[in-house]
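Researcher: Sequence recovery benchmark, item below. Answer with residues only.
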């Protein structure tokens, strides 16, 4: 999965912001994730970045089945979840969709059960990006 981000993966898409959000939300649900949080960057920083950044949404999603594995392996794992997905407008009218790489955080945890679960979560989330690419070829 190509990306210039060392802690996440994703791509740029020729989608409106609204369409990108709708497609990501639908695909997350199809892949077993539930969306627990929706946070707009503007809610965090107000209008201080107006003109510098377009609309920017952070989704917090979690797959309950994998979450069970994580919490059994390490009760402190709550510090690392949910999986964050960001969707933001680019100045060229496109959108960027990025997902936090759950396997990267497992470098900090030595429990093999948690590592295996993180790899499975990453595979599911990579599929979300691949599904988006197949629906919206550039």
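Model:
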């Amino acid at each position: 999965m190509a990306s210039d981000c060392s802690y996440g993966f994703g791509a740029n898409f020729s989608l409106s912001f609204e369409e990108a959000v709708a497609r990501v939300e639908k695909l997350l649900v199809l892949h077993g994730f539930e969306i627990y949080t929706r946070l707009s960057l503007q809610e965090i920083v107000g209008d201080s970045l107006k003109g510098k950044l377009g609309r920017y949404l952070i989704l917090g999603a979690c797959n309950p089945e994998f979450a069970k594995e994580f919490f059994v392996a390490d009760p402190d794992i709550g510090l690392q979840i949910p999986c964050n997905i960001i969707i933001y407008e680019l100045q060229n009218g496109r959108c960027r969709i990025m997902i936090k790489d759950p396997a990267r955080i497992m470098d900090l945890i030595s429990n093999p059960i948690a590592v295996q679960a993180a790899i499975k979560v990453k595979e599911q989330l990579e599929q979300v990006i691949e599904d988006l690419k197949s629906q919206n070829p550039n």
